[in-house]
Amino acid sequence: MGQAVQKQATIGVLRETAEGERRVALDPPSVATLVKRGHAVLVEAGAGCQANLFDAAYELAGATIGSHSLVIEGCDVLAVVRAPVPTLYKKLRAGQLIVGLLDPLNNLQEIADLARRRVTAVAFELLPRTVSRAQSMDALSSQASAAGYRAAIVATEAYGRYLPMMITASGTATPAKVIVIGTGVAGLQAIATARRLGAVVTGYDVRAASRQEVESLGARFLTSSIAQGAGNGGYAAALTASEQAAQQEELSDALSAFDIIITTAKVPGRTPPVLVTSRTLDSLRPGSVCVDLGSSDRGGNVVGSIPQTTTVTPGGVTVIGAGELAADLPGSASQMYARNVVAVLASLLPNGTLAIDPADEIHRSIVVCADGEITAAVVRSALKLEPLASPAPETVLAS
Ligand code: NAD
């Protein structure tokens, strides 16, 4: 007797609605890959146009273009870039899967509500990034890379002076001094880009391990004498309040020598540490520029930085709140992000339908909720729920 063939999941992509967001979760080549795997793909009309990815290219790749509601109602899997607005969360139904940068630790109530309504959620932020199999799924890295690259360019545009040394018949320009605080993925890309633009660059981090990476890019390395903050998984550990105050004091003295400060310092699940204080801003020369990649509604690395906003201090220092700078490079950032989505879907839907394997370290980490249960340990802990006694049961998509 022949076996019934299970329908492959339909994948949906919407136009992102967050202010200033120009990325899209799938590009035409990634649609073609999914179609080749047997999936149907629904794309909201105009979803990619802000990244210069137009409906005709999606159609050519095998997608069906439709309205917002056609995509939501017709898809089994919704791929998004940013966490949805509340109205979209409410439209998701039992058995559907949503995958994206859902920022679960800052959207706990929304996640709890999705779990209650038996929606499955997958968050890139929870990927175990050091597992080599996970590297093709690492959206935090692909987007941090784009943001770091843009940070150096945005800073250069705002600076209004040459970055390299220029010796001309009309005079000599000294090279700009750039410091990048936080030398993870975004910071290293900012250093590499600022170096290519001709600046003299310094990298600063509390993790001593980043010295070699910074120096290999031809930049000077500076670290804190107060705290050696290496935590778990290559991330920084949170500093105590007194360590942070001492670090601010020490940094303030060092920072007044720089023309451009790019900050990318983050500690997972925490508010970013303030590293550029009012005293530091007051000590900078007029015309200096701070680009704050840590900037968010919860605060940033530069005191008073406002997300997605450029301000100028009374002393003439430009402060750019740039917490979502990858959205400023929408073509490349979407291309890389789409590859991450395709890789994650290949792992979670090995035969075309959702099959969460509780024994798989990647699945265990990135699946936030499934089968009506919050499964990610870190999210359970943030919601003050007891740890799960046994791994969540294997999940299949409702068809
Ligand atoms: P992140 O975005 O969490 O933080 C950015 C940087 O800020 C980090 O380098 C961190 O040490 C630094 N920082 C935090 N608090 C600070 C403070 N008070 N002062 C100065 N600097 C501070 O980091 P990320 O870019 O996501 O990378 C984190 C780590 O993960 C790095 O070690 C990176 O190499 C590693 N990583 C590994 C892989 C892999 O193995 N495939 C992939 C991605 C990242």
Short recap of the structure:
The protein is of the alpha/beta class and 399 residues long. It has helices at 28-36, 55-60, 68-74, 86-91, 108-116, 139-159, 185-196, 211-216, 241-255, 278-283, 330-348, 361-366, 377-382, and strands at 11-13, 41-44, 64-66, 77-82, 97-101, 120-123, 166-168, 171-173, 177-181, 200-205, 220-223, 260-263, 289-292, 310-312, 318-321, 367-370, 373-374. Nicotinamide-adenine-dinucleotide binds at residues 129-130, 135, 138, 140-141, 144, 181-187, 205-207, 210, 229, 234-236, 239, 264-268, 273, 275.
Tell me the distance between the termini.
Answer: 23 Å
Give the cofactors and ligands. nicotinamide-adenine-dinucleotide
State the low-pLDDT regions, or none. Answer: none
Order of helices and strands: EHEHEHEHEHEHEEEHEHEHEHEEEHHEEH
Could you describe the largest sheet, including whether it forms a barrel?
A: 8 strands, mixed
Shape: globular
State which percent range the strand residues make up.
15-25%
Please state the average pLDDT score: 92
**Class by SSE composition:** alpha/beta
Please count the helical segments: 13
Sheet with the most strands: spatial strand order: 3-2-1-4-5-6-16-17
Q: Total number of β-strand segments?
A: 17
Q: State Rg.
A: 23 Å
Percentage of residues in helical conformation = 25-40%
